[in-house]
């Protein structure tokens, strides 16, 4: 009985942890290079950050000496979530809504300057 309760608790904990994650963006195609996990509600625009992502202090995480601006080439998106991407800072320029993971972004490769990730109630 004790083992059953422990296994059930681990299952609940892993479900809660994965639920908070909306997407993982990658520096290169095929989910390669540096990665940045985005939680449900994350909003990143040209180096600035607000909402539920992984950054702190108002800035997006750095990749070596460069910002994530125009660096995203692939991403894994959790089922039921959407990734809104804009070509320019401040949610301007061309916009695309992704509802599934992409190993290669084609014409959107290294073009994203603003993105927002949300699941369910965040959109």
- Would you count the extended β strands for me? 8
How many independent structural domains? 1
Distance between the termini: 42 Å
* CATH superfamily (homologous) name: Crystallins
In DSSP terms (H or I, runs of 4 or more residues), the helix count works out at: 1
Order of helices and strands: HEEEEEEEE
DSSP strand content: 35-45%
Helix content: 10-25%
CATH class, named Mainly Beta
Under CATH, the topology is which? Answer: Gamma-B Crystallin, domain 1
| Strand ordering within the main sheet | 4-3-8-6-7
Descriptive tags:
single chain, Gamma-B Crystallin, domain 1, five-stranded antiparallel beta sheet, three-stranded antiparallel beta sheet, disordered N terminus
What do you see in this structure?
This protein is of the alpha+beta class. The chain has one domain (21-122): Crystallins (Gamma-B Crystallin, domain 1), CATH 2.60.20.10. It is 15% helix and 38% strand. It contains one helix and eight strands; from the N terminus they run αββββββββ. The strands form two sheets. It has a five-stranded antiparallel β-sheet, with no helix packed on it. Strand 1 and strand 2 (32-39) form a beta hairpin. It is globular, with a radius of gyration of 16 Å. It starts with a helix and ends with a strand.
What is the topology?
Elements: H1 2-20, E1 21-28, E2 32-39, E3 43-45, E4 48-50, E5 74-77, E6 81-88, E7 92-98, E8 114-119
Antiparallel strand pairs: 1-2, 1-5, 3-4, 3-8, 6-7, 6-8
């Amino acid at each position: 009985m004790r083992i059953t309760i422990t296994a059930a608790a681990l299952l609940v904990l892993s479900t809660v942890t994965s639920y908070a994650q909306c997407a993982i963006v990658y520096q290169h195609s095929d989910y390669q290079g540096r990665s940045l996990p985005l939680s449900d509600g994350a909003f990143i625009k040209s180096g600035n950050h607000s909402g539920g992502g992984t950054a702190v202090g108002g800035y997006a995480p750095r990749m070596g000496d460069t910002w994530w601006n125009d660096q995203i080439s692939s991403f894994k998106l959790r089922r039921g979530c959407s990734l809104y991407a804009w070509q320019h800072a401040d949610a301007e320029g061309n916009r695309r809504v992704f509802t599934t993971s992409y190993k290669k972004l084609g014409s959107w490769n290294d073009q994203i300057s603003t993105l927002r990730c949300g699941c369910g109630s965040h959109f």
